[in-house]
Each structure stands twice: as structure tokens, then as C-alpha cells.
Amino acid sequence: MSSLTHSVYAPASVGNIGPGFDTLGMAVTGMGDTLSASLDSSLSQDVIERITGEWTSLPSDPRENTASIALRIMLDLAGERRPFRLILEKGVPGSGLGSSAASAVGGAYLGNLLAGDIFSSKDILDAALSAEAGVSGGVFLDNISACLFGGVTVSHGESRTALPAGFIEGIHLVFVVPRQTLKTSESRRILPDLVSRNHAIGALSNTAGILLALLRNDPELFCQRVADPLIQPYRKKLIPGFDALRNAAMDAGAGGFAISGAGSTTVALTHRPERIEPIISSLKTALSIESIEASVITSSIDPKGVRRANS
Q: Which of 42, 122, 222, 287 is deepest in the core (most CB within 10 A)?
């Protein structure tokens, strides 16, 4: 016998926000996963009924998918042993937009609802992190925390803690999402063990600037401070046409340009709405010249984070 079906929406997110490596995260609008599940005592085990919309192959075994792993962790915490049926509609495109984090947070939030909405945000965070770490082998909270809380977040992997830092209106995002995806593990391998002191100071300064922009509600400063002197010089080598795309966006009036998470997605930012269309046009021209197949998607900061679907 099946229980009531619950559905949740988990937004895509930008890890790092440029200089805030493994620390800053930002939820975004217009892209996200929708997950639906019910408990079914007639089943002998948990089941992922279907996965739609995925850009790359995802595991349908519930023991290997971050959504189902996180969901089961929450149910086990509640002492709920009945199996579940899960439907996962992927709406996070490409790589670099927190796809696995959205699935994990969505699964954990869904598990909480099926258990009676009895758990705290920290419990949901921990379950999503355990699911992510179990699949990726690493502890990365920037996308998870942004998807959970919405807005901009600050996380600390070593202590496994995350805090919402706030929300700022008036920032327009233009994403370039290549069909060619990039694994986070590959993007991390290219990073050196030692970095320049000046580059580290620059990244710290810009990270502080992003947080100050939130405090002052200053979208122009926010866009300017996404510049990343620390990680971007290494990772951009893995993203075809990066310099051409950055130059195209900045020449069209963007206030900033950055790699989204580990890539291959990139994002242009502006606080001037009249610059959105010129930035889109310029990016599409650059993609054509570079013969890169990619989607150009407009967005903004999502203030809500994970939530019941259609709410």
C-alpha cells in the first residue's frame, strides 16, 4: 500500500562564486531537479521508477544515486523501514551547476517530508553530504548548502557546517552550458598543491568583497568581485574557448565572468538589465566562432533553496 506522494524542487547552484573556492555557494533560478516519492509497503526494496532529463548517464540503482541514498538516510533516521518509489526529473543541465548536490538535497528533503517533517536543516544537510561523499568520495558543501538554504551561503568542509549569508536582488546571470561535461575529479586534479601568495590574497580580498556586497546590498560590487586569480588560471585550460567567452561577455558590458563550480559551465554577471541581451548575443557569436555547442541560459539568484514543488 502506497503512502501520500510528496514532490520537491531543488535548485541548481554555483559553487565557489569565483574566488570562494569550496566555500561560497549560490542558488540560481530556472534550473533545478524535481523529485517525487511515496512509501510503498508492497515493495521488497527501494525503487527508482524513472529518471528523466539527465545530460549524462545516472545510476538507477537506489544504492548508487545521491537522491535515493539521501532519501533512505533520512527514513532510516526516522526508523521508517518501508521501501519508497522515487521519480527524479533532472532539470540541472551540464556540469558545474551542482547537479548531484541538487539530487542529494532534494532526496534528503523529500525523506524528511515522508518521515513527517521532523528533522532540522542540519539533519538534511548531513544526509545530503553523506550521500554526496559516498558517491564522489569528497566532502564539498558549497553546492549542497546553497541548494538547501538558497541565496548565497558560506560553508566549511572540515567542520561540515554551512550558514546562509544572504540574498541580493538586481544581479542578472547569463550561463554558458556546454554539451561537453567536465568531471569535478578531473577539474581538481589540475590544481597545484602550492599557489602564489599574491593570488591567494587576491582571492581572499574578492571573497570578502562578495560578502561585503551582500551586506551593503550592492549588486555592482558583487559582480566585480567574482574575479578569481587563484583557481581559474588552471581550470580554464579544461574549458574550450574560455578566454574568448570571457572577453565576449566583458566587452558586451558584463560586470564579471567566472567558472561555475568546477566547470565546464561559465557565467557572466551584470547588474544592468539593459546589458543582458548584448551579453547573450556576444556569447552566442563567440560560441559560433569557436565551434562550441552550448546552451545560453539566463538566470538570477534563487532566494528560497529546496522546497515543496510549486511553492
A: 222
- Looking at 3.40.50.300, 2.30.42.10, 3.30.70.890, 3.30.9.10, the CATH number of the domain 172-299 comes to 3.30.70.890
Strand pairing report for 172-178 and 24-39: unpaired
Burial class (CB in 10 A: 0-12, 13-18, 19+), 237: exposed
Beta partners for residue 86, in sequence order? 37, 48
Give residue-wise pLDDT tens across range 148-191: 999 999 999 888 899 999 999 999 999 999 988 888 888 889 99
Q: 39, 84 in Cβ contact below 8 A? A: yes
Instruction: Quickly count: other Cβ atoms within 10 Å of residue 223's Cβ.
Output: 26
* Bond prior to 264 in cis (omega within 30° of 0): yes
Alpha helices in 11-98 (DSSP H): 66-77
The CA distance from 140 to 23, in Å, is 9
* DSSP code, position 303: S
Q: Is the dihedral of CA 13, 175, 89, 183 positive or negative?
A: negative
Q: For the structural domain made of 6-166, what CATH number should be given?
A: 3.30.230.10
